[in-house]
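User: Small ask, check this?
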Amino acid sequence: MDTQNPSAPPRAQSRIAGKNHPHAGGLVHDHTRHTTRFTVIGNHLAQHPELSGLAIGLGVYIQSLPAGARVDIKTLAARFPEGTTRIAAALRELEAHGYLRRERRRTPAGRIVTRTISCNQPGHRRTQDHQAAPTRKKRTPGPRKPLPAVPQPAHPAPALLQTATDLLAGLYRHDPRLLLSAHDTAHLAPGVAAWLERDVSPTAVRHTLTTDLPPEPLCRPAALLAHRLTAQLSAPPPFAPPPAIRNPLQTCDGCDRAFRSSAPGRCRDCRSDPLEAA
């Protein structure tokens, strides 16, 4: 008949007790192995010494999402209770530490969109790209890329350009991302003047420049505005000749007959009379 030794617990039970220390203070893990719906997260993110708790949580959440999911500020603010300001700050943290990258692309329709790339190991993707494409030239910092050309008014009157400048300077009140430098404003002002010259109201121009902007941060807002000023410029109004100016009526000094002339005097008949001419 088999007997059991109560003082000698099974090996598996001994291993669990030795690992978890159930009678000691501190953390004890109660783990179950995942087989579906799980995401592998590196400890460099989960235990990052510089990221805030919100940034770590957003980083984990973003890495768990499928490709194509929206991760803009408004979408994340609708998912979490922290609000747009704190979420935007957390996204900047992730971007500063390499867990997020943003790339701007132009759609076939001409609209500029931002694609967010989630990196589960910052720096690893760039190294792989460099090894896979050794002939790819490394981008070196250079002078500022020039802004796209904008339409020019046919008659650049000073008052028209001043109205255009004032309109551009006030765009930041509608969207803080549209705060333009003096250089950018001077470049864009002729384009706005070209719109105003075509009988487009300042309100309509402002609506065109500030409506349907991408929700992500704008890297080059002046370039986006230059594109819209050029791509959406309306056709010029049909030419209307100025009305003919008719001379006022005058009373002939010779025959008191009315005639049109720019100045008082004699009518054509009196001026052609041989006696008057003598």
About this structure: Strands lie at 100-106, 112-118, 249-251, 258-260. Residues 1-18, 126-138 have pLDDT under 50 and may be disordered. Residues 158-231 form one domain.
